[in-house]
Amino acid sequence: MGNETPRLFDITTPPDLAGAAYENRVREQARVLKSELIRQTLEDSASWARSVEDKWANDHPDLAPIFPVTDQEIAEYRERVQNSDYEWIIPAFEQFITPDPDQFTPIIAALGKIEASFDGTLDGEGNWTGPNTNLLRIHDVRTDMDEWAGAFKNSFIDRFLTPFQGTLLKHAELALIAGDQMRLTKVCYIRQRKSVLELLDQAINATRALSNGACSPGDVLKWATIMMVATGTVVGAYATGVGIVAGAVCLEVAGTIGQGLLPQPEEKQKLPLTAPTASEVAMNVSQAISRLANDLHNMEQVAANALRELHWAVEKERIRAATSNLPGTFTVPAPPLANATPAQTDQSFFPDE
Amino acid sequence: MAENVTGGDLYRLWRVSEVNLPRVADVFYDAGHLLGGATGGSTAFPAHDSAYPGASVKVSALGSAWEELRSSMLSIVTHMGDVVMETARGVRVAREMFDRVDTENGKSILESYMGPADGTLAPGAKRGHDYSEPASNPPTPGTSEQPVRPYQAPR
User: Above 0.90 for ipTM, yes or no?
Assistant: First the structure.
């Protein structure tokens, strides 16, 4: 495989988005948001009640002030805001605690090991060379078999050993492609976590902005998911590709290298969080959560389809090879020597003179 | 029966079937272990998709797609490991067929060529094989080089 293969991109989960740190931060920030919304809603309603009273008093200067809402009703309203209206905030954000992107690390590591064990190069004569010393023994097999002659020796070399070496790199490539899809999926889940924390920050800011009194256009707080998924066909990313999975639509490698390269959301995809009252901010947050869940779902669908397309491509090759008993992309049949009767072996297999 | 088969010729077949091909097969079986073991599993995938429209039972489309690809890759590497072992078996059968007991010392021509495993060598005799060199001998059971067919790992 050539150097142009973009095999390594950073998939380390940033420490603030990993494990307990992220989990605690989500719960902590969700609690802050909830208490801010409660505080602000009560403030909003108090301010609204005051303004109604003022207006009424201004319109009726000759009448005594009235308080149509009883103290008990006010207490009940406050009770409801404090204990019921915003109870959804914390569970709504807790749903984004799973999955942990690091749960994909073992799969990625396993695929990386498989890729490394088959990786190497084919020289002009079709001989495989690579770092795996156990696979290199294939050359010792050829040397030893070269001391023998006959039809069974020839078919051993031509129908087994030579095509066998040709399949090795394809195993490496398949593991690489599957591994890249896993790495990209992990990156998407990392982004999801980043989106969640950003949403919490912005929602808290939007709520606090209400009590700061300033709600000028410059203060408009927006938020967008950064889950957007780039897709492309495998052929673009894998210039040395074996061609079998060239048509599969996969997560694009090129668009997502490194955690620094989070895509910049376009303005129209951003959702405003700012609103005149805390209840409306809460509504905006609820919409943003739904957008985030949707984007996450879309990403999972794309990733799942990519894996399915790979699976179909691989199965097609495997079945074609299995039913034709000919060397295929990933498999080769055993040489005729493996099934020869003693009489056949005696006739067509003998030491080279 | 070919009468001109020497101990050296048989020794080469012995190396192919007992020393080298099992180590090649091991690479494929090891890949199968990596795929089939817990590390290749799908517990990482979050279940977000309804099992049917409106269902409260959730499944993971991503997880099931990975299981499909994984089982395909697993069957391919296991199959290739089996093919290599089958090839080794064919070479072994051929070697055993050609090998014959030399009536003079009661040993087969391959045994005579390789020399006794316990190190007792008749004076003047030549040893064709070093039993103490691990890399030149069949993979030791229990080491990482021994080809072991992937088990059905608990999921």
Answer: no
Cβ-Cβ contacts under 8 Å, A113 against chain B = 34
Q: Quick check: A318 and B72 CB within 8 A?
A: yes
Strands A350-351 and A128-129: unpaired
Residue A228 at interface with chain B, using a CB cutoff of 8 Å: no
**Cross-chain residue pair B4–A353, CB shorter than 8 Å:** yes
> Which position has the token pair 């905030």?
A89
Contacts of B36 in chain A (CB under 8 A): none
Contact (CB<8Å) B2/A350: yes
How many domains does one find in chain A? 1
A199 phi/psi in degrees, rounded to 5: -60, -45
pLDDT tens for each residue of A62-101? 877 666 677 888 889 889 988 888 999 999 998 888 778 8
pLDDT digits (tens, 9 = 90+) for B3-19: 678 888 999 999 999 99
Full domain range(s) for residue A236: 99-351
Decide if A162 is inside a domain.
yes
Q: Which one of B3, B5, B24, B42 makes the best mutation probe of the A interface by having the most chain A beta carbons within 10 Å?
A: B24
CA distances from A56 to A50, A59, A62, A129 (A): 10, 5, 11, 90
Report if pTM > 0.95: no
**Peptide bond connecting A99 to the previous residue in cis, omega within 30 degrees of 0:** yes
Whether A85 maps to a domain, the answer reads: no
User: How far A172 CA lies from chain B's nearest CA (Å)?
Assistant: 11
